[in-house]
Amino acid sequence: MRILANDGLDNKAIDIFKEKNFEIDTNHYEIEDLKKVIVDYDILIVRSATKVKKDLIDAAKGSKLKLIIRAGVGLDNIDVKYANSNDITVKNTPNSSSNSVAELVLGHMFGLARHIVLSNLTMRQGQWNKSKYTGIELSGKTLGIIGFGRIGKALAGKASALGMNIVYYDRFKNENESYTFMSLNELLVNSDFITLHVSATDRPLIGKEEIDMMKNGVVIINTARGGVIDEEALLNGLNENKVGGAGIDVFEEEPSLNAELINHPKVSVTPHIGAATFEAQERIGEEVVEIVLDFYDNLANIAS
Length: 304
What we know:
- By secondary structure, the chain is of the alpha/beta class.
- The chain has helices at about 10-20, 30-35, 55-60, 80-85, 100-115, 115-125, 150-160, 185-190, 210-215, 230-240, 260, 280-304; strands spanning about 1-5, 25, 45, 65-70, 90, 140-145, 165-170, 180, 195, 220, 245-250, 265-270.
- The strands form two sheets. The chain has a seven-stranded parallel beta sheet with strand order 8-7-6-9-10-11-12, sandwiched between helices.
- Helix 2 (about 30-35) runs parallel beside helix 3 (about 55-60) and helix 5 packs across helix 7.
- It is elongated.
């Protein structure tokens, strides 16, 4: 079997594939070149950089390609339905990055609550604003988690240990005796901090109407997908002091060209690094290996 890891893969996973005599290519091909070479591979592994849409799948029709793996959680960069209709299986690695994303959320929360980003910047500019950056404690505050899957639950455990009151909303409800379920509107009204952990949506889940419902000074964190928050509405909320701060790892357009949002003094930004830890990448590699070996074994069983 020939594997193309078009957006790279953890070295341990690469070594395992080589030990098991799989041929693995870690070169990156831009979309037009990828269309030309994709027919030579049985398995395609991508992260978020490679978009596997209809045109690429059409280029692979009738070829060896039978499996696409998203080395990560979100599948919005892959046309899963169209791939499946062309007998191409699509898998992801949902168990690998929950802890890393949850910790990044806490990092943004601490950074905003204690003005760490601004303090760091202004001190490098020669300022000593000791009396200016009085912050707040996370303990005792209400954290509203929108989307209570693996990441949401991991975050709830960590934030609860810090003394935060956890409320959550999930469209599948996901009953959990340890935390309080609320409707989305109830969560928006009652939370001091709000964090999103949902898949891509057709329209923003959080816009002007939703921000107007929130507490004055609310802090919003988004490490899910850029389009789930209306960036213009968020900026207006920040400028009008309705929103006290925002931590953003994902953007409507990536790389983001929204200079006003990126440079806003009440915003903490990171360049889509939710799963970018050595530990998470190693776990993703392990999960990818497991998926490939299971796929290979199933093919061998069918052949026999």
